[in-house]
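Thread: sanity check for a docking pose with zinc ion

Original post by kr_44:
Hi all, I'm comparing my docking run against an independent structure prediction. Below are the sequence and the ligand SMILES. Could someone generate the full complex and paste the structure tokens? I mainly care about where the ligand ends up relative to the chain.
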Amino acid sequence: MKHVLGLKCMLCGAEYAANEVEYVCPKHGNEGILDVTYDYNAIRRHMSKEKLADNHDYSIWRYADLLPIVNRQWIPNLQVGWTPLYAVPRLRAQMGLAHLYIKDDGRNPTASFKDRASAVGIVKARERGKDIMTAASTGNAASSLAGLAASVGLTAYIFVPERAPQAKVAQLLIFGANVIMVRGTYDQAFDLCLQASARYGWYSRNTAYNPYLSEGKKTAALEICEQLGWQPPDKVFVAVGDGCIIGGLWKGFKDFYALGFIERLPQLIGVQAEGSAVLVKAWQEGTETITPIVPNTIADSISVGVPRDAIKALRAVRESGGQFVAISDEEILEAMRVLGRNAGIFAEPAGATGFAGLRKLLQQGQINSEERIVVLVTGNGLKDVQSAIQAVGKPYVIEPTMEALHQLMTSLN
Ligand SMILES: *Cc1c(COP(=O)(O)O)cnc(C)c1O
Ligand SMILES: [Zn+2]
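Reply from moderator J.T.:
Ran it for you. Here is the predicted complex with zinc ion included:
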């Protein structure tokens, strides 16, 4: 990894060689999250906008020169990334936003954004000769790790809270993971998983612990720049739970800025559910110290009471000149309906949360109609059908006759 300078602690700024530490800064336990640093001059010798234009690898690995991997040997074969960035004509017209785009990351192999991070985690495990990986997750990180692990023959031990939606648990079992359901919250499952990783030596795919995961997540930002012809958006809206995605996005935009591939940086808007708005509160109070809560929201993927990547997330929003916004569960359900009915995009509750945040700022008059806006949809709606039904209600039921149909049609008009 000649292009990687090392790992830098987000708390104390201490720097380490990549082979010196495995996960976190040894000086402050699990809090000292590390950030991968790069030698941009070295990278510029291999990577250019022109070379990317000729690159036919339509996956996150088109950016391998900017990822912390030794070589391509251990890359899993499932297609991760290069998800569509849709221009959405009907939504644009309705919302009066001339340059709105939606990036659908529900189109990844296990149907969520998490595949970007898992793919890099898998490579790091294989580079280290590890054949067991572990993760704690509200659902998507787990099903993602399980699927990618299955594709390369790694064993996965997964810790999920009891409340995880059934479809995500089904994914885990289909992919052959060892699923350990914890009678408790995601936050408790997370702590147990860290202890298990230390005790048994399993390679950890935990957000805000393993420093390489954010690097996978940043590829969405790299794709946005390239898909928009190197004209970055003004604002990017994304759902925030632990804060790893938004931190990763900021890293990606900054990487391309440092390389000179883009000339300005977008504002990042972090959207949280009111029932788990820990980072919204910290941001409003101007602190990096978070006050844990017991989360409660329909959006299970962002139902987090102790955001593990709080510092990266808060700095991403602050440095980008963006903001945090909180929305209600009702607004999330409404956003799911609007996305489905006007764009043909089916999002799980957390997947629609970024869009709900945009709707809120638009209502508040904070968005200008000419702004270039990208909204990330982070997970597919089939992952949580129960919430979808809650958002849209039930179908009509009739007897199999024309008479019954006609009666229905009349009653509808
Ligand atoms: C994990 C996840 C998020 C939030 O990502 P964080 O890194 O925890 O902030 C949002 N949406 C979906 C669908 C997710 O799975
Ligand atoms: Zn440190």
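The longest strand covers residues 155-161. Hope that helps with the comparison, let us know if your pose agrees.
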